[in-house]
Amino acid sequence: MRLVFAGTPAVAVPSLRALAEGPHEIAAVVTRSDAPLGRKRVLTPSPVAQAAEDLGIPTIKADRLDAEATARIMALEPELGVIVAYGGLVREPLLSAPAHGWINLHFSLLPRWRGAAPVQRALIAGDRETGASVFQLVAALDAGDVFAEERYEVPWNATAGDVLDALAEIGAPLLARVVDGIADGSAVAVPQQGEPTLAPKLTLDDGALDFSLDAETLRARIAGVTPEPGAHTTFDGARLKVLRAGASTADPIPPGRVVASGREILVGTASSPLRLETVQPAGKGAMPAGDWFRGLRVENPVLGS
Q: Considering the entire predicted model, what is its pTM?
């Protein structure tokens, strides 16, 4: 079967490689344009573009599937479109152009967490189970019938980055099996069951920490916004990123107050304290919370100040 694959970030690469190893022809890879990265803002191909080059597959670089990109894809006469975290919408006439339409690998158990940030929103909400779903793309947001899903138990204290990496590996063979099933006619999609929840893209404000909340709510938020957009608070008027934090059974301390307890650096919440593990002060690199605390030379430091 003749495929077109659309994807951009690293989490889409395992799926591209799995399909490239299969019996189907990938006529082209669609990915977003090269982006400036690093302090020198060097234009860099997306991870999917780099993987496609390694595999010898032609690329179509487009930030949106406009009329030009649509014409280029339709000229290839694909039988199936496959999309994994491309970062743009597939609209008509492109949506219906392939004989089998388009399928999408989505990192949630649909209909829970439809949208751009399913893993991040799941972790923020405290979900202990998520997964990957392959569904038929339709005009409505992530609402198509589901061909297959794989469940995944979220490890304690895993970040969104950790879970996305795991689901990318789990989802790749799942997607490949669905493509094989569509090709031989055995694939069957069923309507989504249950009440949908939405997972809009995160903003910087989603990473702000409010220490008047309880410890578990804060721990879940830190996990959900790591690595992007990142959890953060303020200290002495400057931003402080919180890269890793865990639960503590220590006695309560005032919300936002930071204390050293043995080898642990604790910050107060509305319930038990959080254990700060790794932080990044403004203008500096990531460091153990203990190193940061010892360098403060401030009595009774309070975060959020």
A: 0.93
